[in-house]
Amino acid sequence: MGPPFLRLRKLYAVVHPKIKYEAPPPISEDHRRHHHQQQHWLKKTNHNTDPNGWRCVDRCCWMIGYTCTVWWVALLLYGSLLHADVTPDQSPGSRLRREGLGPLHPVIMVPGIANGGLELWEGRPCSEGLFRKRIWGGNFAEIFKRPRCWLEHMSLDNETGLDPEGIRVRAVPGLVAADYFTPGYFVWAILIKNLARIGYEGKNMHMTAYDWRLSFQNTEVTVIPNFVYGSLKSKIELMVRSNGNKKVVVVPHSMGVLYFLHFLKWVEAPPPLGGGGGSQWCAKHIKAIMNISPTFLGVPKAVSGIFSAEAKDIAFARAMAPGILDSGILGLRALEHIMRVSQTWDSIISLLPKGGETIWGNLDWSPEQGYPCDPTKKRFLKSSLTDKFGLANSSDHGKLGLGAEETVHYGRIISFGKMASELPSSKLSMINYKDFPIDNPTQGRSSSEQVWTEYNEMNFDSIRTIVENKVYTTKTILDLFRSVAPKLMRRADAHFSHGIADDLDDPKYSHYKYWSNPLETK
User: Fold this and answer.
1) Prediction pTM value
2) Reading across the β-sheet that carries 168-171, which strands appear in turn?
3) 366, 410 contact by CB (below 8 A)
4) Over the chain, what is the mean pLDDT?
């Protein structure tokens, strides 16, 4: 074998090409300005960023999430601890249920004036979109959206006392008609809730729905004869049959007491004015009547409500927000519109004081004479007089200062001024209101910008005469209303009576106008 052969690699020389470097182009002024803005933005962003990369927004989001989580866990723990030691419900219905009580007699509830909801079934073009929507009760949103349209649909015809032509307003049916007047303002909701806890439900609990604006007898001719009262009669008979022939218990409230009193006479009266139930119908179907705040003899605030639309509730609203009802808010003079609308509601007449001066007193006497109506005021007056004048005897609490008796004449249902309420009757000038003429409106009172009321048919001299008389009793106030509001009182005299019967056997007392007056009916 020959010697090793050494092979050598051929060496190559690598020649690199020459690269020609050129100077960069000059930076323009716009490019330099843009670069400066970018650097400024980065510097500003890095200023709000900590070394870990957290921004303020991130920290805020985490803080909110942490707070919500802690709050949710705390509520969860509180709820678990609360249910661990449950306190029994202490409402009357729950307590009665635990004592073993359950539903027995069916219950009929009768709401009072302005308690029941009203809904629109037919109206003017301005009421578009309100079909079967509440125009009374609920949130009263339509008052602010279209006040004039709302007032037009809430008013009744000044001649017939029914809905005007082309308008149909009906009562909302069912328990929802009067459970809440407005959201958060309960009327019957608490009673309904407690009855439900005992075990009552729709088959043995009923809310009487009626149009509280109408006179009681007119509720029968709203659509067809025997509409509301006839339905109530049939409902009571059905509830008695479907609950094991157990009679019903009726719970009326306020004006609903008078409404149901009228029903008791109607249901036994022969047709066509009555329901034809016979003289034993009430005894067969009604177990008991439990009145809540009854208005058998009327209420004095109805007088001021009709006379000037300033009943107690309106006066309270004016005290809370003075000037609102007198201003042109919502494009109308609110107080005048309230008076115009309320004077078409015949049901308000049923709340006028009944019994005349025999029950309510006259210019110099009243049943309350000598008896302080407010025990709190009595104690305050007694203590203040004892401290100031040294009157220690309880018999001296009705005297002021130097032995002068405090003169309060409760029989004067309306007095223009405090002095008129204290003057003896011998110093008061009285007039005969039946002689008042019904004048045509003067030019100054017939402006198209004013709201028409029946006062517009009186001139200023007649109004001045009324004010100058100063004092009115329950007898003279009716004569006054017949002078200043003749259309209202013509309807009132046809449907209501406010006197005392001389002889209940007189055939005239069988007329329906006497049925809602307990002093003129058997």
Assistant:
1) 0.74
2) 134-136, 118-122, 168-171
3) yes
4) 78
d(CA 499, CA 520): 7
Q: How far apart are alpha carbons 324 and 308 in whole angstroms?
A: 16
| CB atoms near residue 78 (< 10 Å) | 10
15: number of CA atoms within 13 Å, CB side?
A: 2
CB 516 within 8 A of CB 496: yes
Strands (E) across 366-488 are located at 399-400, 404-405, 414-415, 471-472
Strand-pair category, 118-122 with 134-136: antiparallel
Q: What DSSP letter does each residue of 471-518 carry, written as one string?
A: EE-HHHHHHHHHHH-HHHHHHHHHH---S--S-TTSGGGGSGGGTT-T
H or E element in which residue 468 lies = helix 460-469
CB-CB contact of 492 with 346 (8 Å): yes
**For residue 172, what are the CA distances in angstroms to 116, 119, 175, 296, 401?**
7, 6, 9, 26, 57
Residue 330 backbone phi and psi in degrees, to 5: 60, 20
Q: What tens digit of pLDDT does each residue of 126-171 get?
A: 989 889 999 988 877 777 788 888 889 999 998 888 999 999 999 9
Instruction: Give the number of C-alpha atoms closer than 13 A to the C-alpha of residue 84, restricted to the C-beta side.
Output: 6
